[in-house]
Design goal:
Chain lengths: 593, 155
């Protein structure tokens, strides 16, 4: 048998969490074992680590390629490997029942992949693989044939806007920076992805770190920076490791360090680990953190492009923005500007999660309607429940209801309904989610992440959270909604940085679209979605209860009584609505109302 | 402070000074070595580097990564991202607190076996709710699955 066998195992964080490393190990062992009988199998099979290919809901995903024909398997576990090796790799009979179905293709075929294009195909731990797919060609072209002004002009013409959330035109920002007369310029990559529900930057760094590094080289050349920083979350250990490796490899190849590509241009890139502060996603706070200070933002202007790190002109872009650049410089500004909508060009990587069938990482052209994302690519709502809202932009964004389902997803579209693009998290909510609870959840987050420098944010978020907590615990008062609105608007209008300015968005958007839920909590003391425990009454359906006693043991206040094998009862005067009995019951006999 | 600790601190100081590292990196190194930031270590560094201790404390208290108290043998980190929240993270936390008998503001058990922590998001939203027990990632966690996992780690 002389066939070439390549097995690729998805090894992003999602893949590893689902057991990717175990699957990989099983393949190694299985190949070694099979190799005893037929040595060529081992010799001709290559095991690949690949980064995230986006469809994390189906992990562990495994590609088996025999003589160039690729089959993709889903939900692979270590105990299934034996059969894959014996039937497919050796026997050339693919195991049809484990192959991915049509929805795998629907998921991928409706996307436009630029940034994610090579993810899941190349080994992120090998620079040669990146070079094989034309990696570092754009950087070489830029450094050897273009002037910095030409690079900035190309980026301006492409219409690329910052993917970190603000959406400021990248080329324009670079132009501001380059216009300064300074002895030193800095370029910073913001990989401090702190939004709950967002993991696009992590996936890019894990799956294709060189694309981001190449983007940084291009940016550094355009503004004249010789020192760069990658500010990355310490909570992403795999991404940090792969980044370090990629930087080392790039340096060895002469793509970083001194005299890049034989020119006189030098660039050194350092890694700074974030220490866990959401506010450090804000430019000026991030700069303070790199300088070793408390990560607190300062008033702008002066903007970092004029006075940034150590007072020098500094450009900060996020991972996805940098990863777009090699493609723009390779294929041209016109190619890029042809993708997307009128004011938002190109594509956006979105972490599609929540109560949806196909969760994962997707990339869509700007302007794609929400409906298509959720129902075509996402495959609709999990468990055939009803769609309620989609939360975009993380704690800075808002909730978009059913009535705006045809909204185009771009910077302007999302802003028009009181939400924002943010870094691109999209959490789909169904009928069992309580919007007051969601709003409280985000305020808990922003309140604890508020750095405390400016009063509106420090005290405003605290008071907003107190009112929301009161409402969800049945202590809501007449006038609370109006008070929330007034306070939210004040916090929005008077906070120092983006964190405070956008923190009220979840409150304002849920009041705007789901006011009736707030009213039900305050006036009827009811939670329509049955989430806020304090507003619920728990009871046991006598016809469903088998008397197993699980609920009785779970109850911490002894509110449940009943004989063995006889239906049990809850004493509501003792019940503290903790929900333990509901979680403990295996027969769906505990109900809440 | 014993001589061995001083030698370790001296080594961290030299390494960081050579790299021109800032306070955050210094503290990250200290925490990697000792598990948490001890008061006497901060004062040692403050004197050695001629930077006021208040400056160190400013940084320690600002960033959530730094711990000022010793942590348990096992670290249970519950992801509190949006998806984990809507899929039941609060119930998991309540269960862990109940099972480990943790008081309201208590995060570490008296026997120093467990510390309960939260993380904003680990980005494994497709298998939410997610809990990390030490380095191991548990997906689609239920309260009963959580109790089972804790039991495995109880001595």
């Amino acid at each position: 048998m002389n066939s070439e066998i390549v097995v690729s195992v998805c090894m992003g964080t999602g893949g590893i969490a689902a057991g990717g490393d175990m699957v990989m190990k099983a393949f190694q062992e299985e190949f070694a074992e099979a190799g005893v009988a037929n040595a060529t199998v081992v010799e001709h099979s290559r095991l690949h680590k690949v980064g995230c290919r986006g469809f994390c809901a189906r992990d562990v995903l495994v590609d088996i390629s025999v003589n160039g024909i690729v089959s993709t398997y889903q939900y692979i576990q270590p105990d299934m490997v034996k059969r894959l090796v014996s039937d497919h790799c050796i026997g050339a009979r693919p195991v049809s029942e484990w192959l991915v179905g049509d929805d795998y293709h629907t998921f991928h075929d409706n996307q436009t992949k630029i940034v994610l294009g090579d993810l899941g195909k190349i080994d992120p731990e090998s620079i040669d693989e990146y070079i094989r797919v034309d990696g570092y060609k754009a950087a070489e072209k830029v450094l050897t044939t273009m002037t910095p002004a030409e690079v900035i002009e190309t980026v301006k013409k492409s219409g690329l806007r910052g993917r970190g959330g603000g959406g400021f035109p990248t080329g324009v920002k670079w132009g501001f920076c380059a216009a300064n007369d300074s002895d030193q310029y800095y370029i910073i990559c913001n990989a401090d992805e702190g939004d709950p529900g967002a993991f696009m930057d992590r996936s890019v760094v894990e799956g294709n770190p060189h694309a981001m590094i190449e983007g940084m080289i291009i940016g550094a050349y355009a503004i004249g920076a010789t020192v760069g920083y990658v500010y990355i979350r310490a909570e992403y250990p795999l991404a940090v490791d792969r980044l370090h490796l990629a930087l080392k490899e790039a340096k060895e190849k002469g793509f970083l360090g001194e005299k890049l590509f034989g020119t006189d241009f030098n660039l050194k890139i350092k890694v700074k680990l974030g220490a866990g502060a959401f506010v450090c996603g804000e430019e000026t706070a991030l700069i303070a953190s790199i300088e070793g200070e408390r990560g607190m933002p300062r008033a702008k202007p002066p903007f970092p492009a004029n006075k940034g790190l150590w007072g020098k002109p500094t450009i900060i872009n996020n991972v996805e923005t940098f990863a777009n650049l090699p493609h723009i410089l390779n294929k041209g500004a016109d190619w890029y500007a042809a993708i997307g909508s009128a004011k938002s060009k190109g594509t956006k990587v979105i972490a599609l999660t929540g109560k949806i069938r196909n969760t994962g990482l997707i990339e869509i052209p700007m302007g794609m309607p929400l409906k298509e994302i959720i129902f075509n690519i996402g495959g609709g709502i999990e468990g055939d429940k009803l769609f309620k809202a989609v939360q975009t932009g993380g704690p800075s964004g808002g909730c978009i209801p059913q009535q705006h389902i045809d909204l185009p997803v771009d910077y302007e579209g999302l802003a028009s309904v009181g939400s924002m693009m943010g870094s691109g998290g999209m959490v789909v909510l169904d009928e069992t989610d309580c919007m007051v609870n969601i709003s409280k959840f985000f305020l808990e987050f922003t309140q604890s992440e508020s750095c405390g420098k400016c009063v509106p944010c420090r005290l405003g978020t605290k008071r907003l959270l107190e009112i929301l907590t009161r409402i969800t615990e049945g202590e809501g008062k007449e006038g609370d909604i109006e008070l929330l609105q007034e306070l939210a608007e004040d916090v929005r209008d008077s906070s120092l940085c983006g964190l405070g300015m956008s923190a009220p968005n979840p409150v304002l958007s849920t009041i705007k679209y789901f006011r009736h839920e707030y009213e039900a909590h305050i006036k009827q003391k009811k939670c329509p979605a049955k989430v806020c425990n304090k507003l619920l009454t728990f009871f046991i359906r006598q016809d469903m209860c088998v008397g197993c006693g699980m609920c009785m043991r779970a109850c911490s206040v002894n509110a449940i009584s009943g004989e063995k094998k006889q239906p049990h009862k809850i004493d509501n005067s003792l019940c503290i609505q903790c929900g333990s009995c509901f979680d403990a019951c295996k027969f769906s006999a505990v109900l809440k109302e | 402070m014993d001589t061995q600790t001083t030698a370790t601190l001296e080594a961290i100081y030299d390494k960081c000074a050579a790299n021109e590292d800032n306070i955050i990196t210094v503290l990250q190194e200290i925490q990697k070595e000792f598990g948490y930031i001890q008061e006497e270590v901060v004062h040692w560094f403050s004197e050695r580097s001629n930077i006021p201790a208040s400056k160190y404390y400013g940084v320690v208290t600002f960033y959530s990564q730094f711990h000022q108290h010793p942590r348990g043998k096992n670290i249970v980190t519950v992801c509190c991202g949006t998806v984990c929240h809507v899929k039941g993270a609060p119930r998991i936390i309540a269960k862990v607190r109940e099972d480990l008998k943790l008081g309201e503001d208590q995060v570490t058990t008296k026997d120093m076996q467990f510390t309960l922590e939260r993380v904003n998001c680990v980005g494994a939203c497709s298998i939410a709710p997610v809990v990390l027990v030490n380095e191991k990632v548990l997906g689609k966690v239920t309260p009963s699955k959580m109790v089972k996992s804790l039991k495995e780690h109880k001595g």
